[in-house]
Amino acid sequence: MLKKKYWMIATSFLLLAGCQAEDDNVNDDPPQEDNQEEIPEENTEDTNDMTDITEADDETNDETDISDEENVSQELMDWMPLLENVEYVYTSDYGEEALDGYTTSRYPQFNSESTQQFSIRGYENTTVNIYEHQEDAVVNVFSREETFFRDNFLETDYPSPVEEQPVLQLPIEEGNSWSGSDNAEFEITDTQVMIETPVGSFESIEVTMTQGDLTEINYYAEGIGLVQQTIAYNEEGADPSEVTLIEINEDVPEMREITLYPLDAEGMSLIQQQVTLNLYTNENQIDPLTDLLRESGLFTENAQINSMYLDTQGVIQLDINQAFIDESSAGSGIESLIIQGIVNTVSQLYGSIPSVALSIDGGPYTSGHITFEENEVLEPDFENVIIEESP
Fold first, then answer.
1. Interior CA angle at 215 toward 211 and 219, to 5°?
2. For the domain that residue 197 is a member of, what is the CATH number?
3. For this UniProt entry, which residues form the secretion signal (predicted)?
4. Residue 143's pLDDT is what?
């Protein structure tokens, strides 16, 4: 919170009093004329002029403040814009617990006309938030931690683990306040804050959220979005943290490191392969993953993932086309090992979720060697995985 300093100006006035002499013979002497001097008219006029100037200055300042307020954009999209193919990188200061080189990145995974799904990747955690632009507010309608995969939650029925939270609300003016979920209270506490960052200086609005012992202050710049955040807990010994925008990387994909589990050269075991998925805004992970599975030998030439998502029961639903079975010439042992490699890969992609349901074109998996019941759960198994040591 910016600290404002006020100066008190003390003014002293010198009072002049006139004394009138007394005479013992008051009744014998004629009455004396009043010798009190009159204030010259020109001084009175000067005083009035100064008053008029002061009042005029006050009115000018008030008009300037009103003009500045009127110049603040009332378009929510200006303060929280829909972004594409751009990565925001933030550095964090956690006082004595600061980690060297610790950064948080923000990437727009999916968006529509009025909604946007962001991934926020930090230290050992990735959170997905969905923001919806409503008529008079921007509302966080979905939030899920430990989401290392890239499902489009805009198109699924997966419920948000937390309640909706309005993070910005019209009008954009100082003093505007509103209540959120979980006893959170929001207020626009300033509309003209200059925030200095390594990528530039931004005139920003300041939105303060209080929730119990927590105070969170977010600074939004027009056309950019979040440029700085301060978090403090009203607890003894608790150091405040500050998150500041340090990089804006345009026209870049979101990069996801994943592990493939293809067969070894003898077809007797599985090996590990570290690969990268490069995903731009509104690109799902299915097509590039399909390509990687083909390149690794786990998929045949025309095998394709039809759909893949985490359902409300915490099971990864993986549906593959019939070509996966029709083009395969593997025996039961090899087929079983290939399926295990696929299950291991998908499980690791989703952050070690241990349940995968495999289907073919929407129906149960049935080949000449192996049959799975509908929604039968398969689990990752790393017993036959060869861990190659780094040279």
1. 120
2. 2.40.360
3. 1-21
4. 96
